[in-house]
Specification:
2 domains; elongated; 122 residues; 6 helices; Helicase, Ruva Protein, domain 3
Length: 122
């Protein structure tokens, strides 16, 4: 099992798919990495040589923000918004949708399970 950026990537999958197990690498970045290193698209992780794994690891370390650093950056950005006290920060603080979605109905993922209101029977 290859370990890249602190993540054990699955060995029996194609390299492009396996790289997407790393937080911060999606389909486009995975294809870009394999193109830079020169690995064919149909190659599987268990067919990689140690040198190719090292090349992939170095390319990710050099060019991309992934895993812990990315999570830290996102958390700091949200904390900055909350400290500023602007609208987006208040929405984060209250646990409500941030990007303008309606909350009269829906928004159950952000708001949590519905709380019953006493005396609201029809």
């Amino acid at each position: 099992m290859a370990r890249i950026a602190g993540v054990n990537i699955p060995t029996n999958k194609r390299v492009v798919i396996a790289l997407q197990y790393i937080h911060g690498i999606g389909e486009k970045f995975a294809k870009d990495i394999t193109d830079k290193v020169g690995i064919p698209a149909e190659r599987r992780v268990n067919e990689l040589t140690d040198a190719e794994v090292i090349q992939i690891r170095e390319a990710i370390d050099r060019d991309y923000v992934v895993e812990g650093d990315l999570r830290r950056n996102v958390a700091m950005n949200i904390k900055r918004l909350m400290d500023l006290g602007n609208y987006r920060g208040l929405r984060h603080r209250r646990g409500l949708p941030v990007r303008g979605q309606r909350t009269h109905t829906n928004a159950r993922t952000r708001k949590g399970p519905a709380k019953p209101i006493a005396g609201k029977k029809k």
